[in-house]
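Notes from the 1:1 (GR / supervisor)

We went over the backlog. Supervisor wanted to see one worked example end to end before approving the batch request, so GR pasted a single chain during the call. The sequence is below; no edits were made to it. Supervisor asked that the structure be written out right there so they could see what the output format looks like.
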Amino acid sequence: MAKTKQARQPISAQLQRNWGWILGLGILFLFLGFLGLGMQVSLTFASIYFIGALLVIGGVMNLVDAIIHKQWKGMVWQTLISILYIVAGGLVFYDPVLISELITALIALILIIIGTIRIVMACTIKDSKGWGWLLLAGITAIILGVLIILQWPISGFWVIGLFIAIELIVTGWTYIFIAMTLRGGYKKGA
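Structure output shown during the call:
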């Protein structure tokens, strides 16, 4: 009976009742993020190896599927894709430094492109409220991209780890703020 009653409650009521779990998750993310800031190089290479493992596992699973379904017309293409996945994963394990440098260069290029698009978009919507924030976001993205490129290839050792650590910290604070908001709402409703 309790389970059915809980299932009928709106999500927000369930979240309010369990705000402590969200707070704990936020604190965990925050701790991991600050830990990651102290070990950016290790975090970069751990993520690179993780990507390599996913590529190899995905390639092997795709290859097994191609072998099992060899009567399928697309089997040859699926086999080729599987081999490319496995080779890409193998390259990650063979030279993780090169891969992290390439991914970092790609991140910098994407930041510059996104920043440019945001600036153009901001100039296009100058009549709208808040267009300046979009302009600021575009300028910030370009500056970050240029800073990464100016330190490339060395930035390949720490950028990915730094971005992951920052993401964990932002997520942690977000969960903490959500939990505090839910806690306030739960006390009011109790």
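Supervisor's comment: The two ends are 21 Å apart (CA to CA).
Batch request approved.
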